[in-house]
Amino acid sequence: MPKAHREQWATRSGFLLAAIGSAVGLGNIWRFPYVAYESGGGAFLVPYLVALLTAGIPLLILSYTIGHRFRASPPVALRRLSRPAEAIGWWQVLISFFIAIYYAVIIAWAIRYAGFSIGQQWGAEPGPFFESTFVGITEAGDFGTYNIGVAVPLVAVWIIVLLLLGFGVRRGIEVANKIFMPLLLVLFGALVVRAVTLEGAGEGLDALFAPDWSALGDGSVWVAAYGQIFFSLSIGFGIMITYASYLRRKADLTGTALVAGFANSSFELLAGIGVFSALGFMAVQSGGEVQDVAAGGIGLAFVAFPQIISQMPAGDVFGVLFFVSLVVAGLSSLISIVQVVVGAVQDRFGVGRVPAVAVVGGATAVVSIALFPAGQGLILLDTIDHWINQYGIALASLVLVVVVAWALRSLPTLQRYTDTISSVPLRGWWVVTLGAITPVVLGYMMYDSLKAELS
Ligand code: PHE
Ligand code: NA
């Protein structure tokens, strides 16, 4: 029997949309606006763009190149590069597993909150509602009661993800992204248009974009910029190696990386405009300043936004738009991380797609569903998130870059490979950024996190 062919994207835009779908996620909507606001506002765009060009896009191209050249998920692709490098691939798989189990939970919350938006079912005090009534947060050590209101949408999230992955690269992942990405643009576009026409939007935008140029001299601002780029482009989790392994032989790796990188950043800016317009509205309503209400992360989505929605005319519609956007953006990212775990087992152990999805994907789902709907779920989520963001991401990319650039000295070979198939030639900047700038920045980021931890 001929060896089974590797799955492939059906169209050129299939890979691009899936890459954008993975990148555009909760990080764009709730992470970027707040990081930018806290790290120099308009001035943050300078380190942010530098980070995109000196680390984000070069690493994106490296991942695409490894996936395309070695045609496998991270463990096998890196093993083909050099046997011991397989360990880096498994590290990425492990990180993906840990992100997947909690990322799904946030999507499940967003599903519930889309429903709660209708009639503002969080009542007069969204903060206590979220923590006590909804999540039922408990003290450390106390497992708390298992929360069915979270478990039901969480089970639904996992069923959707496993079904899509079961359908495969073309009929599952590609089709989903071809629906999700345009849908997200329409929903979120409508939300932003509404937000910028709210009273107070100008105050919010002023607060976000007012440049604090002194921030440029602050090392932590640069760390924040690189950190945002790594998280936002989903670099270091093996996602882009995995997705690129399903490309055809003829593929424009550099051109796609540039488009995906800038598309993700554009969506971030759009989200910043929408989120801070809404925060400006809230500040004006409460007679306060934007700085009193600015927030990011879970607090922004599940506390501040409910407050905004409750104060708005036609808040129900705005709420549904916001939470459904989170769901759509989150699902396309979740699919990509779970595929890393599933694909790794498929490629390494020669298992078929359906059994791999059922066993590995199923096990991931079970862990997620068993742990997070309990009262401890939020604390666990915070812990994993902190650990992944502070160390997991930087360490994975640092080791990868050092091994590829310095131990194996493969960059020139990989560059020649990529240049023969791509539209935009890499020239020297790729080797220089990856070989020198990226490792220095990543090393400094890890040092910075450790220092913060110990002090
Ligand atoms: N890039 C995604 C975002 O911006 C986050 C993500 C990280 C998704 C890792 C998948 C894997 O939200
Ligand atoms: Na992103």
Automatic annotation (TrEMBL):
Segments forming a coiled coil: none
Main subcellular location of this protein, as a coarse class: membrane
Membrane topology: Multi-pass membrane protein
Record-linked InterPro entries: Na/ntran_symport, SNS_sf
SUPFAM superfamilies cross-referenced by the UniProt entry: SNF-like (SSF161070)
Domain of life, source organism: Bacteria
Family: Belongs to the sodium:neurotransmitter symporter (SNF) (TC 2.A.22) family.
Protein name per Swiss-Prot or TrEMBL: Transporter
